[in-house]
């Protein structure tokens, strides 16, 4: 049997996510409805009908104001602003679905682990274990300023802090409440056994947290951990902590190498490389016929905004493309503290030096390589080829417009992939971790740094 | 027409709220189900059927470990632990209701206003303006320790911080995005007008937040502000900020005086005292007949836990009642930094000195004065008398067991109150603030310290 591909949808609680300028498309419902509960519950129902594994919710906690040293381009073109907190749509979506899981992005740089741990446990309880946390360290300088800092915490320090943040979190989730602590014993008047509820007494460089954890153990205890680190420090962090790895690269080969590198590193940390599932971006423009699909793509292209693309790039990379005015000069990066190695991807793996004009032009048009365009068979072929070339386990499917792009995918591409035996027709039972790694694997697997905090006497799987 | 009474239900995301020991009651579904989404959605449907104004969600962010210098009594008897984050049930409840509002408790002591403001805006968006924030400053020493502090921030400093926290919040909610900033103008390619999205450039003693706010204006902008301060500093804070005041006192007269004092203070701040609605506790044990109600009360009494009551008192007051061993001595408070003037309520307004024995005994039994017990007519009489004696605008109805106590109230008491013309039969339209203060009053009213940040050109009501 062919290997089945995992599929998430990649979303954001904003009028616009990554399809720059496409808020203007008249069928793009998110533009008006991203702040309505029924936008999210309808989306969840659609994704469950399409047998998606999870809805992956991106987030930032600041505005993109590096480009032109101003927030104006972002505000004008809805570049991930306005932006609501993505966490709160999850319970409403969970209440109308049974199997769809939810991966929530939260930064370790601007939260406190004690309150954060309770938030994650609550979401894991309310979704009955259909929950993942995408750990990020935040790249926007405007976020740092709004949390009262004069400048961003340096990239590598953010990862040190994140590492300790996760350590505190694992202790709260895994070590504080033993399995069986809640007995609910009416006769002996014991709701929970105090001997099985432990303080964690964490004392580290960044945090001092005595505990105990406030929530009783949720179905998965630790939510499934996503991570998307691409710098050396980020890859090390992913190799240690990630159960799902979100990687992108300028080429499929680059993506493949990144995955292999993280898996090798994971092995050096004593983990089984198969305990990490790798995901990369996917964007699809599909219609019944090739011609219709091409026409759709052309329509999206007309609405594309290069200014929006540059504004987002500015915030996420730290490079202000408006500073590059000599169009014929060779494009060169200046040093940045942002630490997004993604920034370097414009030139990396490209032996030919690009001119400033070439780089700027690459932002101005919706490029074909950003999406697989075609009829259902062509798109399925493209996905299979991309799947094999990258060595990923699954995709985070982004969109041009919502729900339109996703409806198209569910109605046209999913049946074709199912026919080919590479897309599930029914959900597996259990929590998100069990659906990903197999029945009985509700908790962090052996070798994961969080697993060591579980009490030995706890023998449940 | 008689004045209609406002009714909230007082709840907590925990196996037990204030009915000490009653987690043991076999019909108390919360004991097992407080962590399930359908517990909350069923509750919301019940409350909307009963025409409740709002569900008021209490919260603490620590364990009650002052009594016997240990967390054990609290854990054994489910004294507000385990405890989930109450915010996440709200979107699921909002998705199944149309009119019920939600008041969420969040402490200003351990959150950052920039992230917090987006959370509140998101909840106001998703509920379509059916949202209130109960501002607390946290009384548990264990919370302080878990946020890395050696000791609690002093009571009055917590209020200074809360005051600045609210100032930052108002600026983000009221001053950052002008009305009409989001134009969604496809032809001119402008989603939002950058000239109408402002930085707030807050620089204060505790916070430095340049802004802008991440969320676009929600239906109410600032959620309805609840506050329950009872100390002198707390009353001053409430007089300045509260739109809903939650007061309790040892006697109805004491409650009445507290309300009048806050309203007088509010006037001195330039506010209309009618812009503050006052609520106090209500607990009801009702059945078709007096005999059945009495039998129920006796059953609850048998399950009562004095240890749980003392454990909660320890955390909320700072006084460890296990230290008082000379039963015949006169009970006297020692100085505490906790600052809960509630602590003093055991003796305040009581000219007679109590002995330690009398004080301890008052915790050991479920006392009649904690609840109105009787048939529907008796309970309605009791509520009317209590309403008049306290001068409140409404009640936060607590429970012995859930949903049982609330089902009884909805089925037996609400129709009786409706018959008397003091309970609404239909909801008013609009946001929570409009439902409370009248149509068109979606936003903070004139004289409120947050209202001054609204842009003059914004003329919407």
TrEMBL record, chains A, B:
UniProt domain Luciferase-like: residue ranges: 30-393
Keyword Iron-sulfur carried by entry: no
Gene3D superfamilies: Luciferase-like domain
InterPro entries reported for this sequence: Diverse_substr_monoxygenases (IPR051260), Luciferase-like_dom (IPR011251), Luciferase-like_sf (IPR036661), NTA_MOA (IPR016215)
Keywords: Flavoprotein, FMN, Monooxygenase, Oxidoreductase
Any matching Pfam family: Bac_luciferase
Tagged with keyword Oxidoreductase: yes
Highest rank taxon of the organism: Bacteria
Family: Belongs to the NtaA/SnaA/DszA monooxygenase family.
Protein name per Swiss-Prot or TrEMBL: N5,N10-methylene tetrahydromethanopterin reductase
Species of the source: Paenibacillus glycanilyticus
